[in-house]
Amino acid sequence: MAEERLATRTQFPTSVESQKPRLKKAPEFAILEKQNWLIHLHYIRKDYEACKAIIKEQLQETQGLCEYAIYVQALIFRLEGHIQESLELFQTCAVLSPQCADNLKQVARSLFLLGKHKAAIEVYNEAAKLNQKDWEICHNLGVCYIYLKQFNKAQDQLHNALQLNRHDLTYIMLGKIHLLEGDLDKAIEIYKKAVEFSPENTELLTTLGLLYLQLGIYQKAFEHLGNALTYDPTNYKAILAAGSMMQTHGDFDVALTKYRVVACAMPESPPLWNNIGMCFFGKKKYVAAISCLKRANYLAPFDWKILYNLGLVHLTMQQYASAFHFLSAAINFQPKMGELYMLLAVALTNLEDVENAKRAYAEAVRLDKCNPLVNLNYAVLLYNQGDKRGALAQYQEMEKKGNLFKHSSSLELDSEMVEMAQKLGAALQVGEALVWTKPVKDPKSKHRTTSASKPASFQQPLGSNQALGQAMSSAAAYRKLPAGAGGTPQLTKPPSLPLEPEPTVAASPADATFSTEASEQIREK
């Protein structure tokens, strides 16, 4: 009884609230961004297949409204080379978020990669309205204007980019504009400012050194190239440029040592094999020279400098038909160079085609206004054919060019050329003393190629050392500008955006050797 009474005392009254019915739970809506972190994780790990699978699942759940999933899918399409598909997806992102400047920038980037530069400029201008302080937009507008050849607008945009934020790539593109316009002084000033801003950038140091090398300022060129090699001892562009300088000054063995290092990094480089070939030519190892030049020609069949050097080497080896073949090909690519016509005339003279040789000499004289060797060889040909009046006219023109050369350059004319000019002057009875140079006697006998109809008094200076000197400078100056190692006025295309580096070419260790004939020539020494 006592227990029952206790139980009745401990009972509490039921609350009124507990008797009310419970409300139903609110329905769960799909969160559009719930898997964005996982998509981002797989993308930065470059696990693109897993990333695409998650994107597909996310887009199915959100009925295609997840902006970030579409954005990453477009980036993957671009990396896979599907530019048009990436453009369509980026346009979808721009529709989903019209106030986002990044989406418009990506749309413009895809248009740029498709070659639609004008359309890209319009989209970049729309993006600039949303974000006026984005240096990347100004930079990319400048790059688009470069492709449209509107260099003034390009310079304005690149300067605006530098005012907003200074970047190495913007300086590089601004310097390339001045190089395309042929203004080396302004290009050097831009690269100087770039080196002051980023003194450890090896590309900037190498480019500046190459520009000084092109202007003949060897001390500053060597200084900047040395700084580039200090920060990056394997920089093949700087190594090739340094070897080119040594080759210009006749240090062929040291230059070849440098080129061996470059061959390990860039075994398929046309300027490398061109310079190696001309090093062997300077050492009078002509078979090795032809072997290396043929390899360079195989890698770059449309490079006129390689064809020029091949023609010169064949002329030296008295293989006139082969020389005619390569020189004719070089003229097709460089029809405004008088020296090519002169060498072609030398080959035609030895092939006993005098009429075409005269035409080639006449074209060389018309194009070349400063090289006295052209007029000298033409005068020799005319004298051998009995045209003393024409020979005298060319001889007088040669003297005028010699005087200009003496006053405008500190270099001396080739001694063999001076000796031949004296003999020709004596034969034409105009005196042996030339007022524009002092002849230097060479104790060593020099190899000369004679004409089929030469007189007994003197020999025709075919394949002279002056022509050799021109070819060596051509080889050493090959690819002087930033694009390749050692650089030419041919410039590579500028990148469209500053945030993605250009892919590097993987070097094959199997090709990092010299040719068989070249190595045989080295062993012979």
UniProtKB/TrEMBL annotation:
This is BBSome complex member BBS4. Residues 440-525 are annotated as: Disordered. Its main location: membrane. Pfam families: TPR_11 (PF13414), TPR_2 (PF07719), TPR_8 (PF13181). Belongs to the BBS4 family. GO terms for cellular component: BBSome; centriolar satellite; ciliary basal body; ciliary membrane; ciliary transition zone; motile cilium; non-motile cilium. The keyword Transport applies. The lineage of its organism: Eukaryota, Metazoa, Chordata, Craniata, Vertebrata. InterPro entries: TPR-like_helical_dom_sf, TPR_2, TPR_rpt. PROSITE patterns: TPR, TPR_REGION. Residues 450-473 have a biased composition (Polar residues). It is found in: Cell projection, Cilium membrane; Cell projection, Cilium, Flagellum; Cytoplasm, Cytoskeleton, Microtubule organizing center, Centrosome, Centriolar satellite. Keywords: Cell membrane, Cell projection, Cilium, Cilium biogenesis/degradation, Cytoplasm, Cytoskeleton, Flagellum, Membrane, Protein transport, Repeat, TPR repeat, Transport. It comes from the Eukaryota. One of its GO terms (biological process) is sensory perception. TPR repeats lie at residues 101-134, 168-201, 202-235, 304-337. The keyword Transit peptide does not apply.
